[in-house]
Specification:
The complex is a heterodimer. By secondary structure, chain A is an all-alpha fold. Chain A is built from 6 helices and no strands. In chain A, helix 2 packs antiparallel against helix 3, helix 2 crosses helix 4 and helix 3 packs antiparallel against helix 4. Chain B has 10 helices and 3 strands; from the N terminus they run ααβββαααααααα. The longest helix of chain B is centred in the last third of the chain and has 29 residues. Chain B is mostly helical. Chain B is elongated, with a radius of gyration of 22 Å. The chains are: A mainly alpha, B mainly alpha.
Chain lengths: 156, 258
């Protein structure tokens, strides 16, 4: 439990750090940071529920943050990317990539393969989660965006 | 609306490409870039707008009502993540579509953005320090590791920000990774940090192209398979180069860790 809290807080701070690094507008910063916190919470939760299955965990976190960004981007009228990219930050499998590399260097074949597969599973998990929600959002919101586009052109 | 001269039409297309170029430079998705050009040109009465864009090039042909065509292309070199600039350009293009100011005025609006102020430079450095320090803790390091990762992270960031065009991007990443790995091992050897691996992971996160990976997925989902796969290959290459840099540091200096 204590570990989970440390994880969430450090993930939250890391998201803020990255948002500043990517020059997110100050008024978008709270929403971007909240997305990172959401990613960490869902990650911890599903890591526990699924018993450490990295594919399911990242899939769930990917779904959660994409849903969050698609909805909140429309509420605060910002591009989806501005919320999605910072929220993605805590999910990036930097740790796994490192361990895969270090076991390659000291040539521990089993652990190298384990971490390489985990890295790939994480990447694919996030990708699938992102796809499910983005594609649904495209279908759901297609009507509304087209209407807006037409309005602009009609004015001319 | 139909009274634009050819020169004016050229100006409109050139301005639209300027805006789209800045977006692409700042890490926007291809769909957003192409949409922006199309909207601006349509707002100025273009009959048909054909845009094709990949991460390093935009090509546009516009057919004006009088029947003549304007074709321009824009090569984009640097690419990074600057979310505020994507948003600014988005707002600017919306304003242009609504106001439809004269083309000459438009051209002066879309001049190159001012070079970053001292405040943004410091803010970005702070962001890099906070991010790499937090990630050292995130992946299981202690506070001493976080401090080491933060200091090395600042150095990595300064290297990454130095002159984006003069130096091969992959070579720069490799040197950053090699240096960050060596410094992390040294920090533990000297006794500043306790876990070299956590320090290295903290700094790796600054280099890993996780966000480019996300954008490449978004590109491919929108049907821009070309641009998306180019970006994907780029992220794969960078990941390999990062692993190579840290790996070399571990091979040559790993003995110090005992």
């Amino acid at each position: 439990m204590k570990d989970a809290i440390v994880l969430c807080i450090s993930g939250f701070l890391a998201t803020i750090g990255f948002s500043v690094l990517f020059l997110t507008k100050v008024r978008r910063l709270p929403f971007a940071a909240l997305g990172g916190l959401l990613a960490c919470i869902v990650y911890v939760l599903f890591d526990y529920i699924s018993g450490g299955n990295s594919f399911v965990t990242n899939l769930a976190a990917g779904v959660a943050i994409t849903l969050y960004s698609e909805v909140f981007a429309r509420i605060i009228k910002a591009p989806v990317t501005v919320l999605l990219l910072p929220a993605l930050v805590p999910l990036v499998p930097g740790g796994m990539l490192y361990y895969a590399m270090s076991h390659l260097v000291i040539w521990n074949r089993d652990l190298f393969i384990y971490y390489a597969v985990e890295t790939a599973k994480t990447g694919i998990g996030i990708a699938v989660g992102l796809m499910i929600v983005s594609l649904s959002a495209h279908l759901i919101f297609r009507g509304t965006t087209k209407k807006q586009k037409k309005l602009v052109i009609d004015k001319k | 609306l139909n009274s634009y001269t050819r020169e004016q039409a050229e100006l409109v297309v050139s301005s639209a490409l300027d805006i789209a170029g800045v977006m692409l430079e700042s890490g926007a998705e291809i769909r957003r870039v192409e949409d922006t050009i199309e909207r601006i040109c349509k707002a100025y009465g273009a009959e048909k707008v054909d845009v094709f864009s990949i991460t390093s090039l935009i090509i546009t042909t516009v057919q004006m009502p009088d029947g003549y065509h304007v074709t321009q292309s824009r090569r984009v070199y640097a690419s990074g993540n600057q979310l505020s600039r994507i948003e600014d350009m988005n707002a600017l293009s919306r304003r242009i579509c609504q106001e439809v100011m004269p083309p000459e005025e438009l051209a002066s609006l879309t001049l190159a953005p001012p070079s970053p102020s001292r405040k943004t430079v410091l803010a970005r450095l702070f962001g890099a320090v906070l991010a790499s320090g937090s990630f050292a803790v995130f992946f299981g390091g202690n506070l001493a590791d976080a401090v080491c990762a933060a200091m090395i992270g600042a150095l990595v960031h300064l290297i990454a920000r130095s002159d984006p065009r003069g130096f091969n991007m992959l070579a720069k990443t490799f040197i950053s990774a090699l240096m960050a790995g060596a410094l992390a091992i040294l920090a533990v050897y000297v006794g500043l940090g306790t876990n070299a691996d956590k320090i290295m992971i903290g700094t790796i996160m600054l280099l890993v192209p996780g966000l480019a990976f996300g954008v490449s997925l978004r590109d491919m989902l929108c049907g821009d398979i070309m641009a998306g796969s180019l970006r994907l290959i780029q992220t794969g290459l960078i990941a390999i180069v990062i692993a190579g840099g840290y790996g070399l540091a571990l091979i040559t200096m790993g003995g110090l860790l005992g």
